[in-house]
């Protein structure tokens, strides 16, 4: 994908997310996208509340990013003192989410 298409895709995604979608919870928001010169594209991992480098031209492609550091896999991320502290803090997102994709179900009567 060329650079123009990447920029257009990012702008469209941001515009869509800022409009909101009916039925989605807006009480939780993801952290800001990292501004790190070693990676130009990011995917958000909502389960662990971190970003993953998706820039194929970066040597950090596929690595998780937290508090200014890259981790090549989730085990390294989970083992880091910084991430352990974050996961145990009130800043970490609750595992009980609401809205689309929350995993909640209802049964008809």
From TrEMBL:
Keywords: Signal. Residues 89-99 have a biased composition (Low complexity). This is Aminotransferase yhxA. Residues 1-22 form the signal peptide. Residues 100-109 have a biased composition (Gly residues). PROSITE patterns: PROKAR_LIPOPROTEIN (PS51257). Residues 85-109 are annotated as: Disordered.
């Amino acid at each position: 994908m060329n650079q123009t298409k990447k920029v257009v895709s990012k702008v469209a995604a941001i515009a869509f997310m800022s409009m909101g979608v009916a039925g989605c919870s807006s009480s939780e928001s993801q952290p800001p996208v990292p501004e790190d010169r070693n990676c130009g594209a990011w995917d958000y991992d909502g389960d662990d509340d971190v970003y993953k480098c998706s820039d194929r031209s970066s040597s950090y492609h596929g690595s998780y990013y937290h508090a200014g550091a890259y981790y090549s896999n989730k085990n390294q991320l989970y083992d880091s003192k910084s991430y352990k502290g974050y996961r145990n803090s009130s800043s970490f997102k609750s595992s009980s989410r609401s809205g689309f994709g929350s995993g909640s179900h209802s049964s008809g009567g």
